[in-house]
Amino acid sequence: MSFEFIENGTVTTPEGFLAAGVTAGFKRSGAPDFAMVVSEVPAEFAGVFTSCTFAAAPVQLCKKRVLESDFLRAVVINSGNANACTGEQGMASAVKSCEIAAQALNIPAESVAVASTGRIGVQMNMALIEKGVALALPALSRNGGALAAEAIMTTDTVPKAAAVKLQFGDKTVSIGAMVKGAGMIDPNLKVPHATMISVITTDAALSKAQLQKMLAVNADCSYNRITVDGDMSTNDTVLLLANGCSGVKIAPDSAEEAAFAEALLAVMQNLAKRMVLDGEGSTKFVEIKVINARSAEDARKAAEAVGNSLLCKTAWFGNDPNWGRVVAALGYSGAQFDPDKCDIYFGNIPVVKNGGDAGTPESDLRATVKEREFTITCDFNDGDAEYWVWSSDISYEYVKINADYHT
Amino acid sequence: MSFEFIENGTVTTPEGFLAAGVTAGFKRSGAPDFAMVVSEVPAEFAGVFTSCTFAAAPVQLCKKRVLESDFLRAVVINSGNANACTGEQGMASAVKSCEIAAQALNIPAESVAVASTGRIGVQMNMALIEKGVALALPALSRNGGALAAEAIMTTDTVPKAAAVKLQFGDKTVSIGAMVKGAGMIDPNLKVPHATMISVITTDAALSKAQLQKMLAVNADCSYNRITVDGDMSTNDTVLLLANGCSGVKIAPDSAEEAAFAEALLAVMQNLAKRMVLDGEGSTKFVEIKVINARSAEDARKAAEAVGNSLLCKTAWFGNDPNWGRVVAALGYSGAQFDPDKCDIYFGNIPVVKNGGDAGTPESDLRATVKEREFTITCDFNDGDAEYWVWSSDISYEYVKINADYHT
């Protein structure tokens, strides 16, 4: 039951899913900005969302769907307008967006979920939703996943989709996913954590309870582990749809369920890593591992402090093996540990031994931080808990993108 | 008993203080890098320090002085080497630095405090301390404050010193101060908070208990309110020395003490503001005020989230009145408030009303964020607590400075 990645896999790789990506006119650039993902049959589903107090109207509506709807048939997504901080009118617009899509697809409005990303504080232009649905409807296809992934991008430089397949006896189960998100990404969140929208599809059959548990656990080990700039969005949405079209039913607490969960995690980690690599202006992928900590919470605080440290991130951009900044971040993280026991490694090279300089020549360290990807391991030698995060550097380009971005 | 600022005031403005700033050779650039501040008579003193787990050796030694020494006669400061993460040898170096200065000045070693700033993880070159003391000793003067302020700079672009005087009947009391710090500055700290070293002098007579209380309270309303990049250092040190040379004794809980505290706060706020204005690559000074919050803690979380938000900071750099990013930061801050009651102002201009767009034309908002200095007020309309922080923008220059800095 081991899984394998499918080349050019998308949300339409699993059986019974159709998708489309079209230009409705939300983006001034004329780039695709409206996506639909449709299941040919009712799909069980689960969702995790931003914990931001100003959760956008579409997020509030999706939460309602998770609580009240028995199944989903479609997800509509627009980029270019977040429909956040838009009050009652914004909520009415989110509801109306679902109704427009439901009418076109001849399905119940309660079986449609909606996600939006883009500028905050601007009311939705409903004519553009009408136009998006009208254009997407005839374009829906079994090959539409790639276009859908493109249509949900904002500051992303590349579309991000993936799929895996698992063999269960003579039957094949697929899991497909797409994600948008490249900035405003932070792990400091309970389920979930990022300016990101992700739709995950599978043709296996699972219950809502199974899906919800699996999604929350896996988000915590993938999308929740990435940090680009420490900010979090009003609109983060992750939806997982299971339509059963493969004919494979996954029983709770079975070996099959464990195999499925592992494959799902692989897809989500694949996309999480690509979000970091596509972080706004990012030139580095840095894994921060804290090991042998007193508690998982100490390990988490320490790893996130390093992963979010602007001084570390700018040092990485400058190929500077400045471990003093790592030490400073660990020190102010709030994690409990004994600084005199702390060892730090860049890759496999010891940098700090017992809280002081390990004596490695700077040229050796510089070779490591010049890599596109490297790992920083902080060994507290003080327990057995661990945590990791994925981070990126902060470049001139990051500042430029975010100083200039107005959608 | 109102105070007034003294033009070109420094730590040597108060009676009985001498200072010097010289080039000992810690900095490769050849710029001044060693300072001494000396009181002609024993001075009562107090200190607040970094809460970083990896507190540098000089910080640990200063804390010991505060606990164990009855008075200070001198403070020695070097820039170019932080003497942090240097283990037992580092502590021995800090002790030895005090001894070298004490011998030269013919005073007890326990009456000398030491502060260091610069590269982490490098052992001190004690020959340079010897040289610094030898050069500084003959240079000590009543006009040396300005040179001392220059010698403690690292990435600072300008030296930062100030002084005020207060009239008590026919006697004048002065308070002088200097500070270094322009990056790695964050308010998320208990007493204190920043990569900064500050020495404050006064010729009034106060007890250690008075000084310690006043310093902690005032640091919390000045140095603790500034945020440049959310990082904190291993070496933050604030020392306050009172030598009584004015002949004015300030009684505890008196009107005179209140007036003195107010003047001290003015000096510390003046320097705090100048640290933000001198923030690495900063082009803006932004005051974030959260008012009418449910609790001071809610107000603090909200103000710090906005002040530390990279997305807000890059928007300010870009003169972009993007209030969506302010809203997002408030939303993920962890502060408890009702988003539907939240109003936001840029300067005096309403931007958000009841959690949604206030309808002000973007051109009006843009005029405000184009200013060198402006205030963002977040009114939660949900209580009577408030908090403010001072922040700056993040520019290309910030990234450049921190990607390239190796001391």
Helix amount of chain A, in percent?
A: 25-40%
Biggest interface pair, counts: A-B, 67 and 67 residues
Proportion of residues in β-strands of chain A: 25-35%
| Helix and strand pattern of chain A | EEEHEHEHHEEEHEEHEHHHEEEHEEH
Secondary structural class of chain A = alpha+beta
Number of helices of chain A: 11
Please give the alpha-carbon distance between the first and last residues of chain A. 44 Å
Average of per-residue pLDDT values of chain A: 90
Assembly level: homodimer
Q: Which regions of chain A are unreliable across 5 or more consecutive residues at pLDDT < 50?
A: 184-194
Main pleated sheet of chain A: 9 strands, mixed
Shape call of chain A: globular
Please give the number of β-strands of chain A. 16
Measured on Cα atoms, how large is the radius of gyration of chain A? 22 Å
Descriptive terms for the model:
alpha+beta; 7-stranded mixed β-sheet; homodimer; 16 strands; 407 residues
Gist?
Two copies of one chain form a homodimer. With 407 residues, chain A is an alpha+beta fold.
Task: Write up what this structure looks like.
The structure is a homodimer of 407-residue chains. Helices cover 33% and strands 27% of the residues of chain A. Chain A is α+β, with helices and mostly antiparallel strands and 407 residues long. In chain A, the strands form 2 sheets. In chain A, strands 1, 2, 3, 4, 5, 6, 7, 8 and 10 form a 9-stranded mixed β-sheet that branches. A 7-stranded mixed β-sheet of chain A has the order 9-16-11-15-12-13-14, with helices on both faces. In chain A, β12 and β13 form a beta hairpin. In chain A, α1 crosses α2, α2 packs parallel to α3 and α7 packs across α9. The relative contact order of chain A is 0.14.
